[in-house]
Write a structure and sequence with these properties.
The chain is α/β, with parallel strands linked by helices. The protein has three domains: 34 residues; 204 residues, P-loop containing nucleotide triphosphate hydrolases (Rossmann fold, 3-Layer(aba) Sandwich), CATH 3.40.50.300; 170 residues, 2-Layer Sandwich (Ribosomal Protein S5, domain 2), CATH 3.30.230.10. The protein is 29% helix and 24% strand. A hairpin with a 5-residue loop joins β18 and β19.
């Protein structure tokens, strides 16, 4: 075959070559395109979507800022399938649509509570577990989330199914033996697939379901790895549907991220009924259980536990852990009457004021807002005339807890002045007042509860604001009303 020099061909030559070559190319192209189309059609079920880790919204492409919640760098790419019908069980029955009713036609059933054997948890939940509720428990790693729920599961007389996706059955058994609780009604299941979990549930019919943790579960309806935004939303939706249809309380453990919020989309906290936060210091044995959201009770309740080798012990008198025992009076300490939720507490505030070794004085605070400490130091410097600008100030709240109640401001001021003057405040004195920017002592709420708690614990004198209104009755404790920092300084030093 003679080769043709295409460089010397004119337009007619190219046309002549195309007549003979084009049919052959079409045949070859037709043969090669057929399997390619099959592959594309097969892959068309998969879809790449970007989820926002903050609000859970979907985006077709990656952007630096989420257009829904305006958060930056929160979009994560996930490969998902076409979303199927969300159901925890396959049902062929057609569900009748709900009928709209007026407010007067709605009947209110008597609220049923499942009481756990843990009084602190019952208090935080508002009286116990509500049938059909979904409770989310969050906290730092190693704080005691699994220990708390396993202890509750072992203490209850109801049939409890404890599903763990993080530990084996032997590990859970060793923890149960350490807790020293015997309960044959608690069943342990190690599974992460929600479809397999629901198959076991249909055979067991538990009264209470415990999931440890939501970040380890996955469903076959979503083609994504466990812990992703889509998997957390889908598995949580299946658990909620199961809880509402069967009336089974579901307790779910959720991990937190480095910011301190529960990992996954923020919408997860909106989906569940109750959100509990388990917090505390690893260096201390005491743990605090707070309620951040509760559809069946108040969010102002608080539960305190002590972590022991045999499990979590309920602390009925929180003041015992927050006031340290001393052989003699020491300078720089003051007792404050505060409120954690609806529970009055007596906490100890420690302060240390010393001369600055280096040119810049240090300001450090543990368990207390550092910005508020700087504000109080500025008030003492400007309004009261104390020269603390060239001194180091260290503040600590005993017990390893964080206090945001402004009523401890007066105790903070008293502790700082006590350390500065090196004069001890009597241990039977307590304080409950807020400090304003003008140096005035402002009133606080629920002053009667604070006074009653101080009286019950045997304090002799409590310092409150002059503008506080309280019940003037015969009390065993002396109530001292003050209006300025100078009055406090004159009475104490």
């Amino acid at each position: 075959m003679d080769y043709v020099d295409i460089t010397n061909l004119n337009g007619f030559g190219f046309w002549w070559i195309g007549i003979f070559i084009t049919p052959h190319l079409q045949q070859k192209t037709h043969r090669s395109i057929a399997p390619t189309n099959f592959t594309l059609n097969k892959m068309a079920k998969l879809k790449t979507t970007y989820f926002c880790q903050s609000c859970g919204s979907q985006h077709a492409k990656w952007m630096g800022q989420c257009t829904t919640c305006n958060e930056w760098n929160t979009l994560v790419e996930e490969v998902i399938q076409k979303e199927e019908k969300r159901s925890w069980k396959q049902s062929t029955e057609k569900k009748q649509p709900n009928k709209a009713l007026s407010v007067s036609e709605i009947e209110i059933d008597k609220e049923i509570r499942i009481h756990t054997q843990n009084n602190e948890l019952n208090t935080v939940l508002g009286g116990g577990l509500v049938p059909g509720s979904v409770i989310l428990l969050g906290g730092e790693p190693g704080i005691g989330k699994s220990t708390l729920l396993l202890q509750i599961a072992l203490e209850m007389q109801h049939k409890v199914l404890y599903v763990s996706g993080e530990e084996s059955q032997s590990q859970i058994k060793m923890r149960a033996e350490r807790l020293q609780h015997k309960n044959s009604n608690c069943l342990i299941l190690t599974e992460t697939n929600t479809q397999n979990i629901f198959k076991n549930i249909s055979n067991i019919n538990p009264d209470i379901l415990v999931i440890d943790s939501i970040q380890t579960l996955y469903t076959d309806h979503i083609e994504a790895s466990p812990g992703t935004v889509s998997q957390i939303k889908e598995t949580t939706a299946e658990l909620i549907k199961f809880a509402k249809e069967t009336g089974t309380p579901v307790l779910v453990i959720g991990h937190i991220n480095k910011e301190g919020s529960i990992a996954g989309p923020k919408i997860l906290e909106h989906m569940v009924d109750v959100v509990l936060q388990f917090e505390g210091d690893r260096n201390h044995t005491y743990r605090i259980l707070r309620s951040q959201k509760n559809r069946f009770g108040s969010t102002a309740e608080l539960g305190i536990f002590e972590m022991l080798s045999s499990g979590l012990r309920e602390v009925t008198n929180p003041s015992e852990i927050l006031i340290s025992e001393k052989d003699s009076d020491l300078s720089g300490t003051a007792i404050a009457a505060t409120l954690e939720g609806m529970r009055p507490l007596m906490i100890e505030v420690q302060a240390l004021v010393s001369s600055a070794v280096y040119g810049t004085p240090q300001r450090s605070s543990t368990g207390y807002n550092l910005k508020r400490l700087n504000m109080i130091l500025a008030v003492l410097e400007k309004r009261a005339g104390f020269r603390l600008g060239a001194k180091d100030v260290f503040l600590n709240i005993t017990g390893g807890i964080h206090v945001a109640d402004p009523a401890i401001d007066l105790a903070v001021v008293s502790a700082i002045l006590s350390s500065n003057e090196d004069v001890a405040i009597p241990q039977n004195y307590t304080f409950a007042a807020e400090i304003g920017l003008a140096g005035e002592i402002r009133p606080v709420n629920k002053i009667d509860q604070r006074i009653s708690e101080a009286e019950k614990l045997g304090f002799d004198k409590i310092f409150v604001s002059k503008f506080n209104k309280f019940k003037k009755e015969n009390r065993a404790i002396e109530i001292v009303s003050v209006s300025k920092i100078e009055e406090i300084y004159a009475l104490l030093f």
